[in-house]
Amino acid sequence: MQKIKLLLIVSVLFVQRICTAQVDSKTEIHYLSGKDKDNLVEWDFYASEGRKSGKWTKIGVPSCWEQQGFGAYNYGSDDVKTRAKEYGLYKHTFNAPIEWKNNDVKIVFEGVMTDAEVKINGKLAGEIHQGSFYEFKYAISKLLNYGKENLLEVKVNKVSANESINHAERDADFWIFGGIYRPVYLEVSPKNNIERVAIDAKANGVINTDVFTTSKKATSVKMILSDANGNKIQDLSVTENSRVNGKWNVSTKANNIKTWNPEFPNLYTLTIQILNKKNAILHSINKRIGFRTVEILEGDGIYVNGERIKFKGVNRHSFHPKSGRTTSKAWSIEQAQQMKDMNMNAVRMSHYPPDVHFLEVCDSLGLFVIDEICTWHNPMLDTKVARKIIKETVVRDVNHPSIILWANGNEQGWNPEVDGDYTKWDIQNREVIHPWSIFNKTNTIHYSHYHSLINDSYSKEKILFPTEFLHGLYDGGHGAGLDDYWNIMWNLPLSAGGFLWDFADEGIERTDRNNELDLQGNKAADGIVGPYGEKEASFFTIKEIWSPIYIEDRFINKDFNGIFRLENRYHYTNLDKVSMKAKWLKFSSPNGKKNATVLSESEVKLPNLAPSSKGKFTVDKPENWQSADAFHLTAIDQYGKEIFTWSYPVSRPKKINNSIIDYSGNGKVKVETKDKDIKVETNDITYLFSKETGILKEVKKENTIIPLNNGPIILNQNNKVEDVKITSTNNNVQIEVVYEKTDKSPGWSTIKEYASDIIKWTIHANGLIDLQVKFKGYRNLKGFRGITFSFPEEEVEGMKWLGDGPYRVWRNRMKGTKFQVWENDYNNTITGESGFVYPEFKGFFSSLYWSELKGKNNNGFIVYCKTPHTYLRMLTPDAPADNKREKVIPKFPKGDISFVMNVPGIGTKFQYPESTGPQGNKEHYFGNDDDLIEIDLTFQF
After folding, report:
1. Which of 56, 590, 858, 890 could, after both became Cys, cross-link 852 (CB 3.0–4.6 A)?
2. Which contacts of 618-623 are long-range, i.e. CB under 8 A and separated by 24 or more positions?
3. Does any domain span residue 845?
4. Helix, coil or strand: residue 920
5. Are the C-beta atoms of 64 and 73 separated by less than 8 Å?
6. What is the CATH number of the domain that holds 56?
7. Which residues form the Beta galactosidase small chain/ domain (predicted)?
8. Based on the domain organization, do 156 and 134 belong to the same domain?
9. CB-CB contact of 873 with 831 (8 Å)
């Protein structure tokens, strides 16, 4: 019995020793700071200048010290002479257990702005680090007091001692901050450890790995492949090619792997172990990998896993309005998911390496990444510091499958002397680009006009790959113009797609201004989403245009045959992975409680098209399909996410409105002409018109004035009134305004005689009033065709309507809306500048059927529009305070509420709308010069 007990004790001790050895063979991470913007650890802090300076106090780490109330704010373009130059002193104590004495301890800083001097127990940990966006570490084993308290001191200079770094980072077009803004932690590893690894996991399963170690006890390397959750798949048979100067080159091949790409971001865990001569594990690390192969074929394209890619990308800053450059993984996930929701497949790190967690999210959710070092125009980074920065970038990020290219800076900041340095540290030998340059195999031109996309210059054999195009500002750019650009980019063989500028408005909450949001005028209002992720209209335009399911434009009318033509614009996904639903809908009247009723719903069988293939599908038409108001098609991807919902009006506006407008009711209508007015009275409504022009002057319902007046004015019409006719019956009164026939057509110098413009009012006994306006449909080069009224903005509370929505449109940004019943409350948002409540209330709205304007004190009205393809103009958006960019401030008609047949395009920060493509052109064609356009409305007050 005693022997059995002894054997059990020995067995337990042996198992414990094995478990202990296993644990000891791994690296432990001990955070000295918090892990992100939402989890800070207080350190002692001293600011040299500015707010809360000249005394020791506390600060949360990681953070930008401006957001903690210290120092002063600067934007990169601020005058150097007035730029803040404070430094900060940090102190923090930590314990180093006695058990660490035989370990290798390093202190890691993920990011410090800008120059960092680090001391442990009063001694320098290493050379001063320069550069804000790069991870650095020091070996501090010999500086620690084991079993005792240790003092960490960091001096952070906001302004670098290296002028080329200042120019690259602090003169750039973005916010500049100071502080330890990314996490700080200790790495505790065995003495015999793997310093780092560089992995090249190919699409064919081949894995080449550089294993860096200085351990003299290490005699072999072992590798294990597991799934993303850590479940072991196989022990890998390793070929150790060589060990030279502390680096092993190891090769192996995994079987039956699934490749990584944005559509199927398959990830694995690669365990790498170094063993001693007794095959005991000295150190074990896990790295997440994805199997994929990247090639750039000159005169052809960028290939990933053998597929030529069209990059649907956006530029992104690492930024949060409350915490500046200090972010979190949750924020990274939220932003990456929004990119995926827009059907994007790529993101460029502008203009510096991001937080590690953002790259991890790109790996797991599936986004191609261009990783970039921070430079800015001339002068370029000096070669010595550039080499250090490239090493720090590549060594940290080399193993992320999402990264497919390196960018050696931005817009002439490239230092060509260090292009070759990437290869020194990158086992995958990914290619290097110079954004904004014709370099090597690519032309990454920025903000080219639409016509330049034909690529007919001396660089015509280069891959057209703009790393910035359609520079957003306020509501311009991004979605506006993208349809024209993408039609060329998709069909141009040498186009590899491109990247929009940029993802989010970079507005910072100023702690020196009561948390007022500051976007530096028009410098940082460039986003598709607002500072907190608010979706602007272009979000949905991009979502439709970049949908991997491309459906050819079509209309539904009585000849509808149920056939839709489509193209599979996925790169790796067959359409059998996508599902689609069809809905036939009936909408309520303005007074209805239920906005929509589904008449019929069915699954749509899509053809099993391979990527880049074209085909068609047929929608089953229910017996009552022609009684529907609209038809919706919704595509769902293999992960259950909506790709997009396309909507199509089925019934014409006259048919829908005639079925809900009720002219019945007892009463009489009375007309009286006095002085210069025509007064028409029904049961409870009194209308006042101008006797000279027929213009509506006043509407009074009982004792309440409904302030719709001064209309209809026919836009861009200069003719004089020839006659005003009044016809009266017991049931209605008609007022007809006839204009002179002679007119000078806009765009033409000759005077011709055309058909007369006509305004016709019909006031019914129940108070309803019809309005029919006929005007010439000549080509219009400058202004609007339509009619307008006045209505004071301060009297507006909201709007409910049947039409496209919920966002406004521009001529070159029509996509992204949906046809159904919408309801928006009034707001005075200036896109990208103030309010940030979306959709914006004011603007042009397409495909109007009816609209209920909700006025204050019950002074609103309903208008039914029976003319197809009519735009409702609702008020006029306020211009931004920094209105130096007329390119993105389109002109609106006079008046407040208009019904128009054409709307303007909107430009970008650098382009007028007409240079972004045909849809942005000012010229509109309405038929022959003698054709008449009719706008047919009914008002219910």
Report:
1. 590
2. 618/562, 618/563, 618/564, 619/562, 619/563, 619/564, 619/582, 620/562, 620/582, 621/560, 621/562, 622/584
3. no
4. helix
5. no
6. 2.60.120.260
7. 683-857
8. yes
9. no
CA distance 386 to 406: 14
pLDDT, position 859: 87
Would you say 277 and 219 are in contact if contact means Cβ atoms under 8 Å apart? yes
Residue 804: inside a domain: no
Best CA proximity match to 452, nearest among 913, 921, 887, 915:
915
Q: What is the pLDDT of residue 452?
A: 87
Alpha-carbon distance values, 776 to 448, 693, 695, 717, 754 (Å): 37, 18, 19, 9, 8
The per-residue pLDDT for 776 is 86
C-alpha–C-alpha distance, residues 913 and 902, integer Å:
15
Q: Based on the domain organization, do 554 and 541 belong to the same domain?
A: no
- Say how far apart CA 263 and CA 545 lie, in whole Å: 17
- Sequential DSSP letters for 561-617: -SEEEEEE--SS--GGG-EEEEEEEEEPPTT-SSSEEEEEEEEE----PPTT-EEEE
DSSP secondary structure code for residue 759 in this structure: E
Q: What is the pLDDT of residue 924?
A: 84
Strand order in the sheet with 307-308: 294-297, 301-304, 307-308
Whether 489 and 399 share a structural domain: yes
625 with 682, same domain: the answer is: no
Q: Extract the tokens encoding 907.
A: 């430009």
Amino acid code (one letter) for 615: G
How far apart CA 126 and CA 116 sit, in angstroms, is: 10
Beta strands in 682-837 (DSSP E): 685-690, 696-701, 704-706, 709-714, 721-728, 732-739, 742-744, 751-753, 758-764, 769-776, 786-790, 796-805, 818-825
* Distance separating alpha carbons of residues 55 and 62, to the nearest angstrom: 20
What residues have CB less than 8 Å from 6, skipping those under 6 apart? none
Closest by CA to 536, choosing from 321, 332, 793, 830, is 830
Q: Dihedral through CA 599, CA 601, CA 605, CA 609, nearest 10?
A: 90
Are 481 and 334 members of one domain?
yes
Q: What is the CATH number of the domain that holds 622?
A: 2.60.40.10
For residues 326 and 469, membership in a common domain is answered with yes
Domain boundary (594, 625, 660) is at 660
Identify whether residues 178 and 233 lie together within a single domain: no
> 725 lies in which domain range?
669-774
Please count the other Cβ atoms lying within 10 Å of the Cβ belonging to residue 286. Answer: 14
Tell me the C-alpha to C-alpha distance, in Å, between residue 878 and each of 437, 792, 831, 910.
37, 14, 9, 21
Q: Which helix (H) or strand (E) holds 447?
A: none
Q: What is the pLDDT of residue 651?
A: 97
Strand order in 41-47's β-sheet?
Answer: 56-61, 41-47, 87-96, 148-157, 115-120, 123-124
Q: Could you tell me the CA-to-CA distances from 67 to 56, 322, 803, 834 in Å, in that order? A: 17, 7, 44, 20
pTM over cut 0.70: yes
* Predicted pLDDT at 778: 73
Rounded mean pLDDT for each run of 10 residues along the chain, 941 residues in total: 42 38 76 98 98 98 98 93 94 97 97 98 98 98 97 98 96 96 98 97 98 95 95 94 88 97 98 96 98 97 98 98 98 98 98 98 98 92 96 98 97 94 97 96 95 82 96 96 97 96 97 97 95 98 98 95 97 97 96 90 96 96 95 97 98 96 89 94 94 96 94 93 93 95 56 76 96 85 90 97 98 98 97 96 98 92 98 96 84 97 96 95 77 93 95
Which residues fall within 8 angstroms of residue 769, CB to CB, at 6 or more apart?
687, 761, 762, 763, 938, 939, 941
Contact status, residue 268 vs residue 256, Cβ threshold 8 Å: no
pLDDT value of position 372: 98
CB 719 within 8 A of CB 901: no
- Phi, psi of 794, rounded to the nearest 5 degrees: -65, -10
Q: Could you say which DSSP state residue 662 is in?
A: -
Report the alpha-carbon distance of residue 281 to residue 274 in Å, rounded.
Answer: 6
Q: Please check whether residues 317 and 395 belong to one and the same domain.
A: yes
The runs of H, that is alpha helices, within 88-141 are none
> Is 797 part of a structural domain of the chain?
no
